[in-house]
Amino acid sequence: MKGSLFVVAAPAGFGKDTILSEMFKRNDTAGYAVSATTRAPRDGEVNGVHYRFLTREAFERKIAEKEVLEYTEYCGNYYGTLKKSVDDLLKAGKDAILKIEVEGAMNIKKMFPEARLVFILPPSWEILEKRLRDRGTETEDKIIERTKQARSEVAFAKNYDYLIVNDDLNSAVDDLLTILKAEKLRRDNNDELLDKFNVNKIDERL
Ligand code: 5GP
Fold first, then answer.
1. Ligand 1 touching residue 72 (CB < 6 A)
2. How far apart, in Å, are the Cα atoms of 121 and each of 103, 127, 129, 183, 206?
3. Strand ranges inside the chain, DSSP E
4. Are 126 and 17 in contact (CB under 8 A)?
5. In terms of DSSP bridges, do strands 51-53 and 35-37 run parallel, antiparallel, or are they unpaired?
6. 104 pocket-lining for ligand 1 (C-beta < 6 Å)
7. CA 69, chain centre distance (Å)
8. What's the gap in Å between 98 CA and the centre of ligand 1?
9. Residue 160 C-beta-side C-alpha neighbours within 13 Å
10. pTM for this one?
11. I need a surface site. Which of 7, 95, 146, 201 has the fewest CB within 10 A?
């Protein structure tokens, strides 16, 4: 079976990373398409696993050589989808999961209309704010700033194909797996099944 391209987006603080890492534990038919970035690695981040960490020069070279499908500048750093990361997964028959911000997702959809965009929503604004507060790591100003940022990102959700509400981790992971499975069952991903029944040779008027 061939793999499909998925973009999973959610504003920071929405639990996207947790949902994805749980999903990968439960499903080996999908892989994470590692992006490139010029930002410095954070503690625990591994080159080639979380990102390909590149210098600005190396990143710009990749853009010039058309090795980057889309890219953006975010907080002073480049972030971009590597063509090779996506190709390697799809060639291996796996679903390629991109974890990119909302505008990058729109660009991917323009380039690959068959890509499926999945947006993860919080149960409510109140719960999102409460989650940010409960983490206790953010100042009040930061919480307000992040809530504002989240609102502008959620505005893009209307352009997505699927919505998941992150109310409960397990059911959010189940929802994501269901979306991946549904895509595998689409008729246009299973033409060989129709060939097996010679469907295209049967006269429909009979
Ligand atoms: P962070 O620095 O927190 O890892 O990522 C910052 C933002 O960049 C996140 O919203 C993340 O989804 C986004 N991002 C990561 N990789 C890419 C990419 O390849 N393309 C785009 N457009 N955004 C990305």
1. yes
2. 17, 11, 13, 21, 48
3. 5-9, 30-32, 35-37, 51-53, 68-74, 77-82, 95-98, 116-121, 162-165
4. no
5. parallel
6. yes
7. 14
8. 9
9. 24
10. 0.91
11. 201
How many whole angstroms separate alpha carbon 102 and alpha carbon 172? 19
Ligand 1 atom at shortest distance from the alpha carbon of 12: 10
Question: Ligand 1 in contact with 11 (CB < 6 A)?
Answer: no
Instruction: Kindly give the number of the ligand 1 atom that is closest to the alpha carbon of 35.
Output: 19
44-58, 106-120, 174-188, 191-205: least confidently modelled range: 191-205
Instruction: Answer whether 81 contacts ligand 1 (Cβ < 6 A).
Output: yes
pLDDT in tens, 161-188: 999 999 999 999 999 999 999 999 999 8
CA of 201 from ligand 1 middle (Å) equals 47
Q: How far apart are CA 195 and CA 46, in angstroms?
A: 44
The CB of 74 under 6 Å from ligand 1? The reply is yes
Q: Using the atom order of ligand 1, give the atom closest to the CA of residue 9.
A: 12
pLDDT at 8 over 70: yes
The first and second tokens of residue 80, run together, are: 């971009």
Contact 182, 31 (CB under 8 A): no
CA of 100 from ligand 1 middle (Å) equals: 5
| Residue with CA closest to ligand 1 atom 23 | 100
